[in-house]
């Protein structure tokens, strides 16, 4: 018995030691960085290019700690749970989700005067109507995404893909997929309403009727859909497995498939679509505010950095001239013809409380139907 | 890890227990230890108090604490709140569930799915556990059991994507069927309750296998032989001897699997279809998508939890009655 | 036992092995695909994803970090879980049913709920997010599994042995250390494997309670956002091989020592 305990102890001991040995480089790194400042960032995988991070650390002596997140809701939950003393300095929030963060006092207004490179951002994004709330700017736009109709070019023609109706046609029954929350807004747009619901802020009855109509439409079309999905990886996998021939998608995941050589196309259909923008935001009560501004100014410095983010994520850069640093295929997968872009509008947050108060239960109802 | 080995060990441990080995003898005779032992074991009551204090403290602070926090959140009108904002006590979060029928569907669907999948897991793993415990030599049992455990070291998500590669329209199964000429066009396995079942049974098999295995492994072979001597056929022997004696293992395996499967989130979301939304998804929606509806999410979680507990309680009662009926 | 039955059962076993291993084999296979996405058809092959894992310091560090967390949390779970099992098994006392209920509680709460509950509770207690917090949450979550397994084993311990030891003059403490504990070793080892596995695979608790160092599942989730790439398959495969190697080593250890103690 004694031998067994001894062996077991040795076993656990060696395992722990092996683990500690593997772990030590980072601990050393961390200890070494403690002398100078830090900046703590919550962001998606590849949103901070590795080469930029290394250069920034070398030049400023500020250690960049990145915590990878995988959705907006989790960031919100985490930050809410950390209040009033968050560990984070910079977060990555989608523009149309600002309001929720602002209402819960999780974000600090952005002082653009402290960012000498603010002008490097394309004004389409930095001066857009959604970007200013309560008279303040709340984030620095870095990447832009949009709701597109993605289709397997071997199975679906571009002509068919120019209308959202194809997504609900009998022809592709059982071969379509969409994110149901996003689809609610698009269906409203298809029906000729304002999917942002800003137009109905004074008329809740009308708003409710519109959401009801969209909901009934999606329930009626439910037998035709293969899958209500949530994440980009899912829709990519469905295309690769040929479980679907076309589907609603964000442009980022679709672009990644195109860049990998998959026969995929995407359009902004004639009925129009919505775009959104990822921004870097400074957290309310952030522990290292000065470092956060230093970081933001540095990352906005060159279009090359913007291009690197686009390459990694498939989303469109908000930097002026970033496309100069992309390959032809990358350019193709991250740009749209002018006439299609004309149909695009941005998600807006003003009516979010009313909108999601109506849309969230409707989504539950569609799923339960 | 074979069981008979340690039983044997125990019986020879007995002769050593009195302290004939230097270490234990010396320990037992060592002054400070004697004082300590005397203090600790002075009376059965004190013994019990000392034994019980730490676990009770742990259970209250570690197991109950987080849940009470959750319960508290489910009873307020807003959470998390901005600093110094008012917060009021309310039952509305619970009433919302009972007031809105759209939540009932995923709720009952989850309970039904959990029950069906638990049953499937039982049917699938019972013969496996039986084979391992009764037909494999002791030497190999552990190895073959470990073999089955290996896939469980792979994370849930990676495994789930592997199942997509298996069942997709261009997945392995369809490729093989096509290659043999059984089908012309792929069978759409994915995003149905079938693909979801495949994924869930994969996750729960382990929790069923282990209790079943240990119940079957404890069962003396002689019982079956005796029944055979009395002329019982294989099926009768199984039904009259093996099954009743493993009811306890079945009951604990099913309870565990049922409770765990009511809480599954990622696998049903990834493998299920438009009509397989489970309640965990509804709950997560209040935390994720809507973001600011934690109290409702917490209340719904409490409802799910209580319902699952009630069902397993009834189930355990039934199994107990069944066991009594069989031995009587 | 009749032969036909035996063969049929063996077939079922191997069919089950096939069922659990085919997805695994697909996972390993996809790690060799020369593309950024997994799935058939595979047009060209590459070793880059696998070699990449070994040259990626972050992945290796994350693996080590996850192993350390798994081992530490398992140690805590095993001690606490066994202690609770000893308290509960074969004892009648006021409030036993409630104690039992509390013991199983963490195992029954859905992951996301328990993760957020822990996060709120950690904040309330002033525990900083990071390795300590993850170890703590994993340890608490795994205690019921240890307790249940140990209780099952404990219920088969012949009472006569303890009594005999007591008769021969051993005090309860020594009787426990010399008789009960050795008897529990197989159960404790089995439970440890279980705990290691649960901890190593856990995403939600690690995410909510972690700091800036991701555990392996957290890293994989983050990587998944840019697509299910063969790289993730390669990482999972390497992690599997490493942990399986540790597992087999541990099993051989116990088997050898069991054999020795039988002599």
TrEMBL record, chain A:
Its GO biological process terms?
Answer: polyamine transport
Q: What is the lineage of its organism?
A: Bacteria, Pseudomonadati, Pseudomonadota, Alphaproteobacteria, Rhodobacterales
Question: Among the entry's GO cellular component annotations, what is one?
Answer: periplasmic space
Which PROSITE patterns does its entry note? TAT
Which UniProt keywords are listed? Answer: Periplasm, Signal, Transport
- InterPro entries the UniProt entry points to: SBP (IPR006059), Sperm_putr-bd (IPR001188), TAT_signal (IPR006311)
Q: Which SUPFAM superfamilies match?
A: Periplasmic binding protein-like II
Identify the main location.
periplasm
One Pfam short name: SBP_bac_8
Q: Name one GO molecular function term.
A: polyamine binding
Record protein name field: Spermidine/putrescine ABC transporter substrate-binding protein
User: Which locations, inside or outside the cell, does it occupy?
Assistant: Periplasm
From TrEMBL, chain B:
- Lineage top rank: taxon: Bacteria
Keywords annotated in UniProt: Cell membrane, Membrane, Transmembrane, Transmembrane helix, Transport
In what way does this protein cross or attach to the membrane?
Answer: Multi-pass membrane protein
GO BP field = transmembrane transport
**CDD domains referenced in this protein's UniProt entry, alphabetically:** TM_PBP2
Q: Which InterPro entries match?
A: MetI-like, MetI-like_sf
Q: Which residues cross the membrane?
A: 48-65, 111-133, 145-167, 187-210, 245-266, 297-315
The cellular location(s) given in this protein's UniProt record come to: Cell membrane
Q: Which GO terms describe its cellular component?
A: plasma membrane
- Domain (ABC transmembrane type-1) spans 107-315
The entry's family comment says:
Belongs to the binding-protein-dependent transport system permease family. CysTW subfamily.
The entry's protein name is Spermidine/putrescine ABC transporter permease
The scientific name of the source species is Marivita geojedonensis
From TrEMBL, chain C:
Record's bilayer topology term: Multi-pass membrane protein
What this protein is called in its record is Spermidine/putrescine ABC transporter permease
Q: Does the keyword Transcription apply?
A: no
Example GO CC term: the record gives: plasma membrane
As for subcellular location, the record says:
Cell membrane
Upper lineage is: Bacteria, Pseudomonadati, Pseudomonadota, Alphaproteobacteria, Rhodobacterales
Kindly list the residue ranges recorded as spanning the membrane. Answer: 7-32, 63-88, 100-121, 133-154, 175-200, 232-250
Name the predominant localization. Answer: membrane
Record-linked Pfam families: BPD_transp_1
Biological process terms in GO annotation: transmembrane transport
**Family, per the entry?**
Belongs to the binding-protein-dependent transport system permease family. CysTW subfamily.
Supply the alphabetized keyword list: Cell membrane, Membrane, Transmembrane, Transmembrane helix, Transport
Does the entry feature the keyword RNA-binding, yes or no? no
Q: Which residues form the ABC transmembrane type-1 domain?
A: 63-250
Q: Which PROSITE patterns match?
A: ABC_TM1
Can you name the source organism?
A: Marivita geojedonensis
Q: Which domain of life is it from?
A: Bacteria
């Amino acid at each position: 018995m004694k031998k067994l305990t001894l062996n077991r102890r040795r076993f656990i001991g060696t395992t722990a030691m092996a683990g500690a040995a593997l772990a030590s480089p980072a601990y050393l790194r961390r200890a070494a960085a403690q002398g100078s400042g830090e900046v703590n960032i919550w962001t998606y995988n590849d949103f901070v290019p590795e080469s930029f991070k290394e250069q920034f650390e070398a030049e400023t002596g500020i250690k960049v700690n990145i915590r990878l997140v995988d959705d907006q809701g989790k960031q919100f939950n985490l930050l809410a749970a950390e209040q009033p003393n968050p560990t984070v300095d910079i977060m990555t929030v989608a523009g149309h989700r600002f309001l929720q963060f602002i209402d819960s006092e999780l974000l600090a207004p952005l002082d653009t005067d402290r960012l000498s490179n603010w002008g490097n951002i394309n004004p389409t994004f930095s001066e857009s109507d959604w970007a200013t709330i309560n008279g303040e700017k709340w984030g620095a736009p870095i990447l832009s995404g949009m709701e597109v109709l993605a289709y397997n070019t071997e199975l679906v023609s571009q002509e068919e893909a120019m209308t959202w109706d194809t997504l609900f046609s009998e022809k592709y029954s059982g071969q379509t997929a969409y994110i149901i929350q996003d689809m609610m807004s698009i269906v409203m747009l298809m029906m000729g309403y304002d999917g942002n619901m800003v137009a109905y802020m004074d008329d809740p009855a009308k708003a409710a009727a519109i959401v009801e109509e969209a909901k009934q439409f999606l329930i009626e079309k439910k037998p035709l859909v293969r899958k209500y999905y949530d994440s980009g990886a899912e829709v990519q996998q469905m295309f690769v497995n040929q479980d679907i021939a076309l589907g609603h998608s964000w442009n980022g995941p679709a672009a990644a498939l195109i860049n990998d050589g998959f026969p995929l196309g995407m359009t902004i259909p004639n009925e129009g679509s919505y775009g959104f923008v990822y921004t870097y935001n400074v957290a309310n009560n952030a522990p290292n505010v000065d470092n956060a501004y230093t970081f933001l100014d540095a990352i906005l410095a060159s279009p090359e950095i913007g291009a690197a983010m686009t390459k990694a994520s498939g989303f469109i850069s908000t930097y002026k001239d970033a496309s100069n640093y992309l390959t032809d295929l990358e350019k193709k997968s991250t740009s749209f013809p002018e006439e299609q872009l004309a149909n695009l509008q941005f998600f807006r947050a003003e009516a979010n409380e009313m909108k999601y108060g109506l849309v969230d239960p409707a989504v539950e109802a569609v799923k339960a139907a | 890890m074979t069981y008979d080995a340690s039983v044997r060990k125990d019986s020879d441990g007995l002769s050593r227990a009195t302290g004939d080995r230097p270490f234990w003898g010396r320990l037992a005779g060592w002054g400070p230890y004697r004082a300590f032992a005397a203090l600790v074991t002075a009376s059965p009551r004190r013994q019990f108090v000392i034994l019980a204090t730490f676990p009770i403290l742990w259970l209250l602070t570690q197991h109950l604490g987080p849940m009470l926090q959750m319960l508290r959140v489910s009873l307020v009108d807003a959470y998390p709140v901005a600093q110094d904002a008012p917060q009021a006590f309310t039952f509305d979060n619970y009433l919302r569930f009972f007031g809105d029928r759209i939540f009932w569907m995923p709720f009952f669907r989850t309970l039904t799915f959990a029950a069906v999948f638990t049953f499937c897991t039982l049917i699938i793993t019972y013969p496996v556990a039986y084979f391992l415990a009764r037909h494999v030599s002791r030497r190999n049992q552990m190895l073959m059991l470990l073999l089955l455990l290996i896939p469980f070291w792979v994370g849930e998500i990676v495994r789930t994507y592997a199942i997509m590669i298996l069942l997709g329209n261009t997945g392995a199964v369809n490729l093989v069927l096509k290659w043999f000429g059984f089908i012309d066009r792929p069978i759409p396995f994915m995003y149905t309750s079938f693909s979801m079942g495949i994924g869930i049974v994969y996750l729960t098999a382990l929790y069923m296998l282990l209790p079943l295995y240990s119940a079957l492994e404890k069962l003396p072979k002689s019982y079956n032989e005796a029944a055979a001597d009395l002329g019982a056929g294989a099926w009768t022997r199984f039904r009259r001897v093996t099954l009743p004696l493993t009811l306890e293992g079945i009951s604990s395996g099913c309870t565990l699997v049922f409770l765990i499967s009511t809480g599954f989130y990622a696998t049903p979301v990834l493998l299920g279809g438009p009509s397989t939304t489970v309640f965990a998804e509804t709950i997560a929606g209040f935390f994720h998508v809507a973001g600011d509806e934690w109290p409702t999410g917490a209340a719904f979680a409490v409802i799910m939890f209580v319902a699952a507990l009630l069902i397993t309680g009834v189930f355990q009662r039934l199994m107990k009655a069944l066991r009594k009926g069989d031995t009587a | 036992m009749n032969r036909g039955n035996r063969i049929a059962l063996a077939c079922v076993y191997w069919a089950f092995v096939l069922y659990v291993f085919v997805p695994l084999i697909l996972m390993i296979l996809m790690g060799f695909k020369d593309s950024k996405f997994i799935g058939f058809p595979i047009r060209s092959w590459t070793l880059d994803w696998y070699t990449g894992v070994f040259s990626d310091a972050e992945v290796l560090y994350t693996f080590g970090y996850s192993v350390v967390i798994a081992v530490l949390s398992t140690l805590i779970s095993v001690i606490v879980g066994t202690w609770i099992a000893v308290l509960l098994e074969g004892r009648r006392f006021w409030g036993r049913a409630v104690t039992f209920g509390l013991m199983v509680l963490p195992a029954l709460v859905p992951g996301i709920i328990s993760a957020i509950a822990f996060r709120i509770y950690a904040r309330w207690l002033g525990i900083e997010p990071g390795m300590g917090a993850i170890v703590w949450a994993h340890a608490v979550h795994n205690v019921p599994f240890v307790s249940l397994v140990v209780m099952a084993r404990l219920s088969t311990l012949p009472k006569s042995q303890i009594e005999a030891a007591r008769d021969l003059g051993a005090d309860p403490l020594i009787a426990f250390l010399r008789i009960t504990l050795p008897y529990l070793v197989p159960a404790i080892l089995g439970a440890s494997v279980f705990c290691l596995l649960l901890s190593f695979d856990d995403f939600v608790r690690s995410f909510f309670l972690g700091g800036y160092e991701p555990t392996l599942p957290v890293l994989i989730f983050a990587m998944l956002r840019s697509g299910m790439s063969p790289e993730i398959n390669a990482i999972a495969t390497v992690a599997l091989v490493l942990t399986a190697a540790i597992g087999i080593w541990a099993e051989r250890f116990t088997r050898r020592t069991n054999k020795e103690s039988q002599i």
